[in-house]
Here is the input.
Amino acid sequence: MTSRELNDFLTQTAPGTPMGRLLRRYWIPALLATELPEPDCPPVRVKLLSERLIAFRDSAGRVGLMDEFCAHRGVSLWFGRNEEGGLRCPYHGWKFDVSGQCIEVPSEPGFCRKVKLKSYPCVEFGDVIWAYLGPRELEPPWPGFEWALVPATHRFVSKRTQECNHLQAMEGGIDSAHVSFLHRHDLRSDSLHVSKGAELTRGTEVRFEVIETEGGMVIGVRRPAGPGELYWRITQWIMPFHTMIPPYGDNALNGHAFVPIDDENCMSWCFTHHPTRPLTEHELKVMRNGGGIHVNLIPGTFRPAVNKDNDYMMDRAAQKANQTYCGVKGIAMQDAAIQESMGPIQDRSKENLTSTDNGVIMARVRLRKAALAAAEGKPVDGLDPATHAVRSASIVLPASVSFHDAAGDALKVRAGVEHTSV
Ligand code: FES
Ligand SMILES: [Fe+2]
Here is the structure.
């Protein structure tokens, strides 16, 4: 594969592409549960991996996710009437249930049995509606991420659209070397980040160590701490698009899932949870106001209020005064702005990688291997919920020890035990 072919291979996820086939083997966060708040509520358009779909909750509370367009003559079912156990197309009254089965063709009773829309199974937990777009016989068990399994009071979930390929966004989540630059000043100003660790993270002398795990990899990034000591920030990456950000001080854990909408847009899911306590009013207020890893959205949409069309509200004075490093306000929007600036699909044939890109390099290798395995019908990594039961950590260790051995238990989910964080 030339580097250009590899770029296409890694970034294209429409039906029939190798990466698309791989991603369709996993449960995918599709909607916030609150987008379908009650039985017979309005249907919602969902685009996943270049497929245009419609989601709705029927009279019995069941969730359906199916082809957006009516099987009769292709009207968008977003206009549909959600009534009495199905979604009815307003053009000629054909009606579909949550499995996509047509249950009524008013003009020709009986005809409906032969008509079925493409539909996908959904499960609902962790404030998220997850969808499975792959072959039915290969449907994996439900995901086992800690954020999704803690009580609802311990968790805050948001999502935002990002105007670039999902791989580009995910690579930002893996590359924790950028934190000492791009987010440098926010580590002191964002109340959900301030900590001793945040101060150490401002150190720019970084070394990377990447260790492959069953479900993905752990990336240890070390910076000098006290004499004979190193401060380790340990990120988890879990196949195919989940990342867990190393924590700061007493703050909660943060993570992302970067889900392709199509090849030039993705949904950045943002998960904050605390393993052992409810999130505080202060934390919730900050996050609802676009703090921490969350952002303010244009009401009624998932598009950030600060976006490409307003030049991300670039503030050169704040940049000069060291209030922000790049002139964009807020950690999440800094990531989004920087990654969108690389173009909708970064041309990786032109990049020059260094040792701090080792995590990014390894993720590409793993994804490529897994996509080739999936194409041959072989097993793929990261389907076992046990491989999701991991945590990120931040920890100070003697300079002489291996971070992976020494951090050991800190990288596992332990019920009732807090995460390890400096
Ligand atoms: S197009 Fe939907 S019922 Fe005719
Ligand atoms: Fe970032």
Observations:
- The chain has a mean pLDDT of 96.
- The CA atoms of residues 410 and 419 lie 7 Å apart.
